[in-house]
Amino acid sequence: MLTAIGPDSYGIVARVTAALAELNCNLADSTMSNLSGHFAMILVIDGPAELDEKTIYRSVQSRCAELSLLVDVKKVDEISDNDLDGDRYIVSVYGIDRPGIVAGICDVLAVHHANIYDLTTRMIETESDLIYTMVLEVALKDSLELKGLGNALDLKSSELGVSCSIRPSDSDEL
Description:
The protein has helices at 12-22, 53-64, 101-111, 145-160, and strands at 2-7, 26-35, 38-46, 70-73, 87-96, 114-125, 130-140, 162-168.
């Protein structure tokens, strides 16, 4: 697994992935995002068995030296997520920004054994307020939990002063 974080600039993805391609590495899973002017990437890579972490690190660093990236490479074992998998749902949350929104909603999800696959947040500035938005993709192993989860999310979102909805995930979405 490779992580890289640094000031956003042109060519980060091109340079990192070119270094990996030169080493005959393939991207398995990845997520990349601009977070307040910093570009962050997490890549699960698959490469030749004899390739070690230091070689990958040096290759990426040499290609990206002037980009001021913090790079880390770790060997990770493949983990089956079947025990945590289930029907996928999208949870959408929005409201006036305040501390505790993520913690409160995620606590409800944990209590109902909803596994978070993806979580994205954004701040939207309006003329009068900062609106906080959060979208999560979650898996619910037991769909019988859905009604209880929905009720608990309604209660927590009311307590937090935000709006929250849950819907089945569209299987065409990545």
